[in-house]
Amino acid sequence: MKFSDSSKDFMTAAVRLMITFVIALIFSGVIWLIRSSPLVGEEIPIEAMKVSQVREFQPQTVILEREEIPLAAEPEDPEPEPAPELDETEVEMLACAIYCEAGGDACSDQCRYYVGDVILNRVNDSRFPDTIEGVLTQKSQYGRFYWTGIVWPERANYPKEAVARAYDTARALLSGEHSELYGAGYIWQAEFTQGTDVIYLDGTYFGK
């Protein structure tokens, strides 16, 4: 089918007009959508948010009070007990007896403790005098002390170390430092056996 030139021109103009109308319609729709959008130039009313109530969140500071828990007091170190005051007269009497009975170098410190503890055991035994002097000056017990009293022999001037050892032992015993004989009933000490449960040490016998 053939069209005339005038018909072609009319159809071309009509197509152009239709295209222009469609473009204008699309452009109008876009403009309407942009204007109707709440994101451009218009605040969203709170009612449109369909929120029944809007509350402003206000953070609160909570202060927790710490309960002061008292610390347990650290135990104090017990004060050391003061050393007992020694009677220097008793110290000298006991030292003199230890020197006379076990003062030589052949005797050990243990033997000197044994001698001293036998004397103290007698002091605590009702069968003997209740003082060091009474025990040492009892007749036929500790050498010549019964006749001379408790005096140092002339040989005590030498060697001085033996006298010092006797004093050290006497002070230790009267301060509470004892051998296993103390309080165990040992009241005999001699160069021969006496009593029971006899212990022999450094040429001397100790018995109950």
Number of domains: 2
Q: What portion of the residues fall into strands of 2 or more residues?
A: under 5%
CATH-defined fold name of the largest domain:
Arc Repressor Mutant, subunit A
Question: How far apart are the termini?
Answer: 160 Å
> Which structural class is indicated by helix and strand composition?
mainly alpha
Shape: rod-shaped
CATH class of the largest domain: Mainly Alpha
* Percentage of residues assigned to helices: 40-55%
Q: Rg from C-alpha positions?
A: 60 Å
Number of helices: 6
Average pLDDT number: 83
CATH homologous superfamily title of the largest domain: Cell wall hydrolase SleB, domain 1
The main β sheet shows up as: 3 strands, antiparallel
Q: Which consecutive residue ranges, at least 5 long each, have pLDDT under 50?
A: 48-52
User: Which sequence of strands runs across the widest sheet?
Assistant: 1-3-2
